[in-house]
Each structure stands twice: as structure tokens, then as C-alpha cells.
Write a structure and sequence with these properties.
Layout lengths: L1 H29 L2 H19 L17 H25 L1 H21 L12 H19 L1
Helix pairs in contact: 1-2, 1-3, 2-3, 3-4, 4-5
Length: about 150
Amino acid sequence: MKTAWLLLVFLCGALLPLQGGLNAKLAKSMASPIYASMICFIVGAITMALYVPFTKETFSWQLLKGSTLISVLGGGIIGAFFITASMLALPKLGMALTFGLVVAGQVMISVLLDHFKILVAAQHPINIWRGLGMLLIIAGVAVVEKF
């Protein structure tokens, strides 16, 4: 079962550069990364609206009662920032550097969130191996940027 999750998450990571490229192409054809981001989110919302009836999930606005405003709005705001920023950066930096930096940022903040047990179920303290992993990713991004 864990292998299936590993493959699914790997696929998600593999799709990010494709999404970035498609979004950048849309932004260029529309001459507006802002409107391209909006179209991206509208299509995503429609996709989820079509998908939800096929799940066994039930929804009630009462479910939001225990949530904070940050948890309700945060993901969407960060997603909008990410989509728009990557659309703007990709044509200037290229695919490899843009998503190399995305991965480096993800790993660095994830290690810190794990270490301080922020937004995670279980704490995973920083150790020499996690530190080495972060340094190797940063080194990889530096090599991609240099060459």
C-alpha cells in the first residue's frame, strides 16, 4: 500500500512541471498571467465539482465550524500565489531551474515543519541525513542554474 502512495505522490511531483508549462503557455496566449491563473482555478473548481459526486464524501457547511480562517483560506491563497508566480518565472528561468527551486523550497520548509511539528501529525527531527538531503538538493539546483 505504501508503494502505491509513493508512486501517486511521485506522479503529482512529475505533473507539476507539466502544469507549469501549460499554465505559462496559457498566460502567454492570453497575455495575462493573472487571468490565466483565474482560468486555471475555475477549471480546477469545475473538475472537482464533477469529481465529488463520484466519491462517498458528504459535505456540510457545519464541517467548517472547527476550522480557522487561515486553514480555510490559506491553501487557496498559497495556490494562487504559486500558480501565478510560476507562470511569471518559468519563461525567465526555464523549466528545470524553476521547478528545481520549487523542490528545494518544498524540501527545506517541509524539513522545518516536520522538525517543529507544525501542520504535521508526527514530529521528524532534523538530523544529519535530512540536513545532507537539503544540501544535496540545493547543490543540484546550483548546478542546474550554472549549466
